[in-house]
Specification:
Length: 207
Amino acid sequence: MSSHRCGARSFIVAAVAAVLLSLLGCGSESPATLAVPPAAAATVPIDADTLPASQPLSVQVSSIGVRTGELIDLGLTAERELEVPDDAVTAGWFELSPTPGEVGPAVIAGHVDYAGVPGVFGRLPEVQPGDEISVARVDGTTAVFTVYEVQRYPKSEFPTQRVYGNTETPELRLITCGGVFDEASGNYLDNVVVYGRMTSALRPRSN
């Protein structure tokens, strides 16, 4: 995985905020459910409002029964659109965004479904304000975000600045496709965006 300094990421995210960065390429419509693997090791809280840079490993959204596998890095396509994972079950972190726990909006994307296979974020529209999202990080810490809003936008009206623009505190964006499935194009017409703010952080309990 590549690494970037926080300042460089913040500059790049601000620069690309004028570009349409909606999630494209979701596949055929089908229901999606994923089981939650066994619980992680015991943790204790960290007294911190922000965390140093550390790339995300996985995402857990207990309210919809999702824990991802290892995240991949996502960049921009030649058309300046957000890359998408190559399969239904893999989610990815937009590597030009802050890492989860740093100041700014960390962006993680996945499919609602793909090529007829249920997607890792197939149940994302069911997330509600107040739900928690935990993001495990390479340094062993976990950033915990509380959802404050869930929105669905037409891809033609995607609010790029709101989703990708700088914030004063650590935030999270989970993005997938949604709305009506267009048989002609093979894509959904909308994007679903879950907005969250970091409300706690955890580290593994020492023996």
